[in-house]
Amino acid sequence: MNKGIFSKRLNFYRQICVMIAILSTMAIQAQDGGEKATEELVNQGFENVRWTETENERIYTIENNVYKVQGIGISKAIQTIQEHGLPTNKKCKVIVTHLEVPELVLTYNPIEKDSTSLSDVNNWQTSYDVESSWNKIKKEKTRNSSRFKVDIVIYPQLSFKNLIITQIYQVLFTLNPTIEVSLWSGMKLTGQIIVPIYNDGYSIYQKTVHPGYLTLSQRFRLPFNIKGKATIGYFNADRYGADLMLFYPFKDERFSAEGRIGSVAVGYWDGFNLHYDTDFNLTWTLGVNFYWPRYNTQFSLKGEQYLMGEKGIKFEMVRHFRYASVGFYAMKGQHANSNGGFRFQVLLPPYKYKRFKNKYLPRVNTSYHMGIVYNAGNEQYYYRQYRSEANENIMNNNSFNPYFIKSELSNNY
Q1: Strand 170-182 to strand 150-161: parallel, antiparallel, or no bridges (unpaired)?
Q2: Which of 144, 217, 205, 201 is nearest to 168 (CA)?
Q3: Residue (of 92, 138, 73) closest to 399 by Cα position
Q4: Are 182 and 147 in contact, with CB atoms under 8 Å apart?
Q5: 46 in Cβ contact with 77 (< 8 Å)
């Protein structure tokens, strides 16, 4: 064989070997970075952690049950992922779940000369659109599963009303220990006991210990990024029955639509004796929302049917902060005067909490939020609504809003 031809072939084979070695090293580094980041996330207490890598992107899933503020928890997870190395020349995605159901996705778009130390949080984009990436990772093995882990959550509740001349306010303060446990993907069991601490003429039925929320709720995700929750059981406002909620973000995710329908009947507790009616009434809500990212403010306009059967419309504006949400509302319904008022929710400390080494021991903490709704019109009968879960409020409902998470992410770096 000609020496020149042999030399060229030898150089060609050497180049092939070098390329294989480089690609193998890159694959090992990617595997090492993904595994180490996953292990560290689990060590920090994040649940339902997964990772996988495709030709075009690396994908993680996390569930933040460590920090009460989702924005803080997500930013800590992002920092951990960046410290263990971002993929080269491909996207990195972090899907945030709740009870194993995807809520939103954060996507890192690499730029020239970008590195772990130089990467900018502004390169992480947030969106409700998780479908394509979720299908690639949902069958991967889950680490530190949230299933069957028990939380005992203490919900403080303050209520007051001004209805009689001889007393300025009738006041009720209760502490409501609540068991919350995830049974399977999207499913949560809630059981609550209401313990009156102070009752100054508020209600004779609130003088003794009695059950509160007793519910099973199933969260789910449909095509086109529609999120939903179905709940059955005993709610608040002396109602029991079934409830369905749906949420749909438009292509411009500042705009969204929501719907809700419930079939409920009257039921109230006298101690541990339940008095109930078997006549069910239909309630519903259909509305549109606009979110103003600059000020983290949401505007809503809804048509509704309330517990007394009257129909009405409601306008609401809510400004969201890291540790509080404050809102104003106005409404007009059939058979009732115009009404309005304000509402607020405040995040309760401690803001960080982890499970015991034995992860199936119950974890005890205060509730995420405590809030008050002020009814300026002092309306007693009309405009009444129920909540289907103990943690349902204006602050918690916004906790996975991609624009709010983006603003929190920027503030935490």
Answers
A1: antiparallel
A2: 201
A3: 73
A4: yes
A5: yes
In this prediction the pTM is 0.88
DSSP readout, 237-249? TTEEEEEEEEEEE
pLDDT band at 5 (very low <50, low <70, confident <90, very high): low
How far apart (Å, rounded) are the C-alpha atoms in residues 409 and 184? Answer: 30
Q: List the one residue out of 229, 185, 56 whose CA is nearest residue 132.
A: 56
What angle do the packed helices 402-412 and 70-83 form, to 10 degrees? 60
Other CB atoms closer than 10 Å to residue 387's CB: what's the count? 15
Instruction: Say which range, 25-34, 96-105, 186-195, has the weakest mean pLDDT.
Output: 25-34
The Cα–Cα gap between 317 and 333 comes to 18
In angstroms, the first-to-last Cα distance of the chain is 64
Distance of alpha carbon 151 from alpha carbon 182, whole angstroms: 9
C-beta of residue 408 within 8 angstroms of C-beta of residue 71: yes
Residue at 405: amino acid letter: I
User: Is residue 9's pLDDT more than 70?
Assistant: no
pLDDT in tens, 86-127: 888 889 999 999 999 999 999 998 765 544 444 567 689 999
* 3-state SS assignment for residue 76: helix
Token pair 């560290």 is found at: 40
Residue 403, H or E segment: helix 402-412
At residue 190's C-alpha, the angle toward residues 193 and 278, to 5°, is: 80
Handedness of CA 59, 62, 68, 73 (dihedral sign): negative
DSSP letter string, 98-131 = ETTEEEEEEEE---TT--TTT--GGGEEEES--H
User: Amino acid letter at 280?
Assistant: F
State the Cα–Cα distance between residues 48 and 41, nearest whole angstrom.
10
- Tokens representing residue 174 in the block: 């209760």
Nearest to 144 by CA among 40, 42, 35: 42
Residue in the block written with tokens 């969106």: 127
For residue 213 the two structure tokens come to: 């929320």
- Residue 17 CB-density burial (10 A; 0-12 exposed, 13-18 middle, 19+ buried): exposed
